[in-house]
């Protein structure tokens, strides 16, 4: 009867364990607008292990995070919402023909300089509505 013995795994030993990956996940979730380079510096400042930027990017992707441009939307306060509701209520009786005679300035985009995109990190494993989460948007 033959016996089998496991051989020592070949290749370089992994530098990070499951606990380190959890720390990186928490770090990315807390600082979604921070680049991998800055996240690496932050992680190395409190961790006993030092990792490279490439390692941080690989962990970033392996944990299911991807970079996306932040959605631009107005950050409305309670006062803004109530005045908008009031404005709509006052004009709710208008006909389609009356509305077609109006031009709204927010329908066009005029760009004099670069659009200055801000990148945020989103998890690809979670549903899409997190794109519209207030913490992932930038004020317009």
Nutshell version of this structure?
By secondary structure, this protein is α+β, with helices and mostly antiparallel strands.
Describe the overall structure.
The chain is of the alpha+beta class. It has helices at about 20-30, 35-45, 55-60, 80-90, 95-100; strands spanning about 65-70, 70, 120-125, 135-140. It has five helices and four strands. It is elongated, with a radius of gyration of 24 Å. It has a domain at about 20-85 and about 115-140. The N and C termini lie far apart (about 75 Å). The strands form two sheets. Strands 1-3 form a two-stranded antiparallel ribbon. The mean pLDDT is about 75.
Name a few traits of the molecule.
alpha+beta; two-stranded parallel sheet; 5 helices; 140 residues; two-stranded antiparallel ribbon
Structural class: alpha+beta
Rounded mean pLDDT is 76
Shape: elongated
Question: Regions with pLDDT < 50 over 5+ consecutive residues?
Answer: none
By DSSP, the count of extended strands is: 4
Helix content: 25-40%
Largest pleated sheet: 2 strands, antiparallel
State the end-to-end CA separation.
73 Å
Number of helices: 5
In N-to-C order, the SSE pattern is HHHEEHHEE
Radius of gyration: 24 Å
Strand content: 5-15%
Query: Please, what is the oligomeric state?
Result: single chain
Strand order in the largest sheet = 1-3
Q: How do the helices and strands line up, and which of them pair or pack?
A:
Elements: H1 18-30, H2 36-46, H3 53-62, E1 65-69, E2 71-72, H4 78-90, H5 96-100, E3 119-123, E4 137-138
Parallel strand pairs: 2-4
Antiparallel strand pairs: 1-3
């Amino acid at each position: 009867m033959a016996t089998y013995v496991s051989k020592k795994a070949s290749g370089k030993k992994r530098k990070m364990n499951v606990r380190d990956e959890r720390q990186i996940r928490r770090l990315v979730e807390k600082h979604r607008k921070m680049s991998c380079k800055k996240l690496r510096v932050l992680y190395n400042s409190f961790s006993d292990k030092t990792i490279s930027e490439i390692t941080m990017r690989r962990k970033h992707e392996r944990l299911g995070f991807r970079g996306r441009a932040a959605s631009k939307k107005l950050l409305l306060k309670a006062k803004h919402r109530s005045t908008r509701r009031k404005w709509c209520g006052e004009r709710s009786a208008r006909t389609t023909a009356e509305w077609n005679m109006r031009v709204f300035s927010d329908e066009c985009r005029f760009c004099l300089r670069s659009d200055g995109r801000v990148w945020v990190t989103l998890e690809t494993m979670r549903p899409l509505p997190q794109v519209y989460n207030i913490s992932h948007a930038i004020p317009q």
